[in-house]
């Protein structure tokens, strides 16, 4: 278990804007007594042998330094968080090094930074990192197995939760939850491969009914407080990969001066890309065993595409 963490804010790797934002958030956490005692800040050099949480901003100015950095560090003890500041193409760097932690500087806040720090110190990142019993309005777990109709699946399964939401938010929640649940059904229950989904329209939406065996049950947890809601969906497939996540979201994103996404005609990836802009999307993958995907989204009635926000936990 890691018992210390060095936050690395080096001008060779990230912009002044990112450094200033993180320094400010650390001060806010410290004032609230939420900054762990075993956290230290390093703004100049650092020891690659230590446990380092390194914030980087891929750009033309930093790319060579970042490539040098990746050749020196061990990703078992060092974690990279990509913090874009504009629409530059950070995906090529992320895909090349399989780095599935991307938080746009506009989305980075004290709650998110606190959760990232807790995760790096091996304190499991989950919905509990963003919700508490004291402030929860709703918190319930569901086990899905047996026979189900795909017609209005989310509305029928989670009516009790939906009734707690403002009517103006319900449709957005249903769309987000439907995407997470159908992905779990495709990979964890039906065993539809990523390759099959990419080349055909064969998908869960084409099924009228579905049977989930008990040994392939899908676990769902829904939480709600007065500021945000959380969705966690876990399947027993473990087929998703960080590379797959990055590639699909990249093909549905517009970066580096592009006017339309590269994958505008793709059958897959659009849902994950939308979710990554609706809130914080967290992936926890144990290959061949299970995949858990969580979304933490603010209770906002206006549907607005925000900058990207994804994290992938180490198994």
Q: Could you give the distance between the termini?
A: 13 Å
Mean pLDDT: 88
How much of the sequence lies in strands comes to: 15-25%
CATH class of the largest domain: Alpha Beta
The order of strands across the largest sheet is: 5-13-11-12-10-9-6
Which architecture of the largest domain per CATH?
2-Layer Sandwich
Largest sheet: 7 strands, mixed
Output the structural class: alpha/beta
SSE pattern: EHEEHEHEHEEHHHHEEEHHEEE
Number of helices in the DSSP assignment: 10
Number of strands: 13
What's the overall geometry?
globular
- CATH third-tier fold name of the largest domain: Heat Shock Protein 90
| Corresponding CATH superfamily of the largest domain | Histidine kinase-like ATPase, C-terminal domain
Structural overview:
The strands form 3 sheets. Strands 5-13-11-12-10-9-6 form a 7-stranded mixed beta sheet, covered by helices on one side. The chain has a 4-stranded parallel beta sheet with strand order 2-1-3-4, with no helix packed on it. The chain has a two-stranded antiparallel ribbon with strand order 7-8. It has 2 domains: 116 residues, 3-Layer(aba) Sandwich (Rossmann fold); 178 residues, Histidine kinase-like ATPase, C-terminal domain (Heat Shock Protein 90, 2-Layer Sandwich), CATH 3.30.565.10. The protein is globular, with a radius of gyration of 20 Å. A hairpin with a 3-residue loop joins β9 and β10. The longest helix has 23 residues. Helix content is 31%, strand content 23%. It is α/β, with parallel strands linked by helices and 315 residues long.
């Amino acid at each position: 278990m890691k018992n210390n963490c060095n936050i690395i804010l080096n001008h060779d790797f990230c912009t002044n804007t990112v450094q200033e934002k993180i320094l400010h958030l650390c001060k806010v956490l410290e004032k609230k007594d939420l900054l762990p005692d075993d956290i230290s800040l390093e703004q100049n050099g650092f020891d690659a042998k230590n446990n380092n949480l390194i914030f980087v901003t891929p750009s033309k100015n930093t790319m060579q330094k970042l490539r040098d950095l990746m050749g020196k560090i061990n990703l078992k003890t060092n974690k990279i968080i990509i913090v874009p500041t504009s629409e530059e193409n950070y995906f090529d760097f992320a895909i090349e090094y399989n780095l599935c932690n991307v938080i746009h500087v506009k989305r980075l806040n004290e709650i998110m930074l606190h959760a990232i720090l807790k995760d790096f110190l091996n304190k499991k990142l989950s919905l509990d990192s963003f919700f508490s019993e004291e402030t929860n309005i709703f918190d319930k777990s569901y086990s899905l197995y047996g026979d189900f109709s795909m017609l209005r699946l989310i509305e029928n399964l989670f009516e009790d939760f939906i009734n707690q939401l403002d009517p103006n938010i319900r449709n957005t929640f249903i769309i987000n939850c439907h995407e997470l649940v159908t992905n779990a059904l495709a990979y964890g229950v039906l065993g539809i491969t990523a390759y099959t989904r990419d080349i055909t329209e064969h998908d869960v939406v084409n099924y009228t009914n579905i049977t989930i065996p008990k040994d392939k049950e899908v676990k769902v947890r829904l939480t709600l407080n007065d500021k945000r809601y959380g969705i966690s969906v876990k399947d027993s497939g473990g087929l998703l990969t960080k590379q797959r996540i990055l590639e699909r979201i990249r093909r549905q994103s517009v970066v580096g001066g592009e006017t339309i996404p590269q994958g505008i005609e793709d059958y897959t990836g659009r849902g994950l890309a939308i979710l990554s802009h609706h809130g914080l999307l967290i992936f926890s993958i144990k290959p061949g065993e299970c995949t858990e995907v969580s979304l933490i989204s603010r209770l906002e009635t206006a549907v607005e595409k925000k900058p990207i926000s994804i994290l992938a936990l180490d198994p």
